[in-house]
Glutamine--fructose-6-phosphate aminotransferase [isomerizing] (Sphingorhabdus profundilacus), 607 residues
Amino acid sequence: MCGIIGIVGKEAVSDRLVDGLKRMEYRGYDSAGVCTVHDGQLVRRRAEGKLANLVQVLKSDDAPGNIGIAHTRWATHGAPTTSNAHPHATQEVALVHNGIIENFKQLRDELTARGRTFESETDTEVVAHLVSEQVEAGHSPADAVKTVLPRLRGAFALAIAFRQFPDFLIGARLGSPLVVGYGDGETYLGSDALALAPLTQQIAYLEEGDWVVIAREGAQIFDKDNNPVEREITTSGVSAASIEKGNYRHYMQKEIFEQPTVVAQTLSSYIRPLEQTVALPQMDFDLAGVKRITIVACGTSYYAGMVAKYWFETFARVPVDIDVASEFRYRDPVLEEGGLALFISQSGETADTLAALRHCKEHGQTIAVVVNVPTSSMAREADLLLPTHAGPEIGVASTKAFTCQLAVLAALAAHLALVKGKLSAEQEREIVRHLIEAPAALNAALAHDEDIAAMAHLIAPARDVLYLGRGPDYPLAMEGALKLKEISYIHAEGYASGEMKHGPIALIDEAVPVIVLAPSGPLFEKTVSNMQEVRARGGKVVLISDAEGIEEAGEGCLATIEMPSVHPLIAPLVYAVPVQLLAYHVACAKGTDVDQPRNLAKSVTVE
Ligand code: M6R
């Protein structure tokens, strides 16, 4: 949700700032802007819409200077116009912000009463004025920031430039991520290590409440009480190459096709293939003593959690509560002392999930986190960190992170079942054998890419699409619907197939394609009965099943998509592929912006 970057450099920064924004555009693409400090002036260039528009502006009107800040925006307060684009500036100060200043209205009224005028509708601009007031009154930039930060409520990562001080920038964070990058005679600020990947791999992660002064020779970090502190400098594993599109047309397509590799990579950290056992990281709590699990996540990660609920309950017989993070705290959940709370997130920065995590921590829960960014806030606040190794996921629609989450969750469920005595060693070996088959099965599913591309035109004209599944395929139906709506803008819903007859079946007519996920197995016949209820009412069905299922129930369907025959445990991983590919090809057929769909952002760091 918004990406920010700052460079105190030895040479011109404008191109490098834009390059950093390019790698953060997945965080938002409503507008972009840069501001450099040059010849005693703040040189600001902004443009609404995609970064390409800012690049055009800079072509005709460059921003010279060796120090600067930049921003790519996901709009919260104020429309995505140029005047609302960051950096926001006064005569003395320019700043970029990721987060929301919740008390901005009160601050704005106060500033207006003191005669300050505003040029945007944003919450951010008040911060520029508050800092500016202090500087204009003769305080040093550091003192100005020190005075203003305690006045801000909400979440922020800030990078601030000062007209009269061309040698340093000030950054601050609370609730939104901010890193410091250390280069050769240069220092950087960024929303994440990805933004700084070509500049440096030497990264320090600021902690909640930290603020920092960065200069060419390094950074001075202060904690929330203004005490100087050291934050460990780590070498980031993110390389610039890992975020290239390669020969693929879209990041999403590349990420779908990476799944066999990254799932194998992830599994290799959680299983011992020779012994055929699960290997989890060391934990300093009694997993066998866990009596209840609370799973909290958002979007696709939530659907991974829904699949995991089946596994935890079936294998380990441990009851699971699952909530979308945005609702979790507000229902005042009953959290018994000693419970395990499990958070699932690609980014590890999703504000709703992070707030739920902190709520659970305050209420005595042990915190387990399945996360793709090992340096994220969630990862750092976990008691048990279970990283996925999907690599950077750039496409806004989550794909490879999902299947990697499922791989980790299956291993965790099996291990929990083992330590609880619900699974024998032989049964554990059997589960591990099935998990080992997953990468090959994903490859076999991907082999149907062309068939799926060829049938996308059947779905592309639809206004509404329904997805049906039963058991662990029900969350997959919801995931399929989410993928389709977010990148093709077709209204889609996922239902438990047995629930159709309780209402949604009224929607069925020839214009509403129904995608049925039904691997053969114990639930197959029941799902097929629900599918026939749809067909009896003129519904057009696309059946996704294996050869056996298609042989049995494929006749008369609008289309069928054949998946390899797999064990039910890995079916959710495998069936993720056709729903991802279907959404992808429908979006391509419709010509929408696959990697940067409208109104969305990759990392949702506001509540
Ligand atoms: O980074 P997270 O996994 O916490 O993100 C959660 C959701 O915002 C995310 O899954 C979102 O729904 C994706 N756009 C789905 O494709």
Q: What stands out?
A: The chain has three domains: 3-243, 246-446, 447-594. The mean pLDDT is 94. DSSP finds 18 helices and 27 strands in the chain.
